[in-house]
């Protein structure tokens, strides 16, 4: 049965929808978002021949109701680690290079990451594409930047970076939905309080679980924590404050292929003796790694960089420095 397409809905193999008078059949299972309409996501939806009335108005006919804040979170039904993905011929678990794929899906040619482009190119692309206007459509929590007139170039550069990161995050999620895990961990795009199956549990605070998340903020790919108990789902720790976000990537992982390595004091990659999991980048390009630390009776997710005097966790509205912590590494 064909239904009107709606955001905030889990679509699976076999589903058909109608949007703007046209009918579409699903290609890749996913959790729909407001800006992922069928016409603009050909990787997710295939348009069907001769379908629809030709004069509809999309999902405007049926507005989805918002759940109350106390409702239990909806779960993404993407394949989790150790389970078979929804795909006709899924690859065997562990195939690939053991880390996030860098293929663009078109012959294996590697795309540049948002942080690989130099400032001049970012400014040129941002200004030429009019991305300042487009950045507003990314939604709260995807990017935050100061709109001062004297900093238009920098704002355009950050808008371009945010758009590029979000595209990469969507591609990672789509590949995972179709093919399943290709290594010991995956960053998976989600929204709000939707905690996917297979999210790597870091600790428990009071009665809620804490997971690792990341999102682009003010020119940096920032690490933080996620929980269905938080008002927006994700909380980043940056610039000595907590930033609440509702669009973020959450870390999925195979606990049998990852381990927490104890560390104390000033962090040095050379002395770690293991390969840490890179979680993001500072605005200046510094790599940051995933950590966990005990504080106030709970274990919290956090971050550390090479040469930092301590690790940091988002806590109580600020960033808390911790000198005793564990670094997430490949087993």
Count the DSSP helices. 4
Structural class, from helix and strand content?
alpha+beta
Q: From the alpha carbons, calculate the radius of gyration and give it in angstroms.
A: 20 Å
What's the overall geometry?
elongated
- How many DSSP-defined strands? 20
What's the story with the biggest beta sheet? 7 strands, antiparallel
Beta strand %: 25-35%
- pLDDT averaged residue by residue: 75
Question: End-to-end span in angstroms?
Answer: 47 Å
* H and E string: EEEEEEHHHEEEEEEEEHEEEEEE
**Any low-confidence stretches, pLDDT <50, length ≥5?**
52-80, 82-112, 114-149
Q: Report helical residue fraction.
A: 10-25%
Describe what you observe in this structure.
The chain is of the alpha+beta class and 331 residues long. Among the domains are: 1-49 and 153-180, Ribbon (Seminal Fluid Protein  PDC-109 (Domain B)), CATH 2.10.10.20; 185-330, no CATH class. Helices cover 15% and strands 33% of the residues. Strands 7, 8, 9, 10, 11, 12 and 13 form a seven-stranded antiparallel β-sheet that branches. A hairpin with a 2-residue loop joins strand 8 and strand 9 (208-217). Helix 1 crosses helix 3 (152-179).
């Amino acid at each position: 049965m064909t239904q009107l397409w709606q955001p905030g809905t889990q679509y699976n193999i076999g589903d058909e929808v109608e949007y703007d008078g046209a009918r579409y059949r699903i290609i890749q299972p996913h959790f729909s978002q407001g800006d992922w309409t069928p016409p603009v996501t050909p990787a997710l939806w295939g348009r069907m021949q001769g379908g629809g009335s030709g004069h509809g108005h999309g999902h405007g006919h049926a507005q989805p109701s918002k759940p109350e804040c106390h409702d239990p979170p909806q779960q993404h039904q993407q394949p989790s680690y150790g389970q078979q993905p929804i795909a006709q011929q899924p690859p065997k678990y562990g195939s690939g290079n053991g880390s996030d794929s860098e293929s663009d899906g078109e012959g294996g040619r590697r795309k540049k990451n948002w942080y690989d482009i130099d400032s001049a190119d970012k400014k040129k692309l941002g200004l030429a594409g009019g991305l300042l206007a487009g950045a507003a459509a990314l939604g709260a929590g995807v990017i935050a930047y100061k709109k001062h007139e004297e900093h238009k170039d920098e704002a355009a550069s950050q808008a371009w970076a945010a758009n590029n990161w979000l595209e990469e995050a969507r591609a990672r999620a789509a590949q995972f939905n179709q093919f399943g895990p290709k290594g010991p961990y995956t960053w998976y795009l989600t929204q709000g309080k939707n905690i996917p199956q297979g999210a790597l549990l870091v600790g428990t605070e009071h009665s809620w679980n804490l997971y690792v998340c990341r999102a682009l903020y003010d020119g940096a790919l920032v690490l933080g924590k996620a929980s269905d108990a938080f008002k927006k789902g994700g909380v980043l720790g940056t610039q000595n404050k907590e930033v609440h976000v509702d669009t973020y990537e959450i870390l999925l992982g195979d606990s049998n292929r990852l381990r927490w390595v104890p560390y104390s004091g000033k962090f040095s990659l050379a002395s770690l003796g293991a390969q840490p999991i890179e979680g993001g980048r500072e605005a200046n390009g510094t790599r940051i790694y995933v950590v966990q630390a005990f504080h106030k009776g709970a274990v919290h997710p956090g971050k550390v960089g090479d040469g930092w005097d301590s690790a940091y966790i988002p806590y109580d509205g600020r960033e808390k420095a911790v000198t005793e912590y564990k670094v997430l590494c490949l087993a």
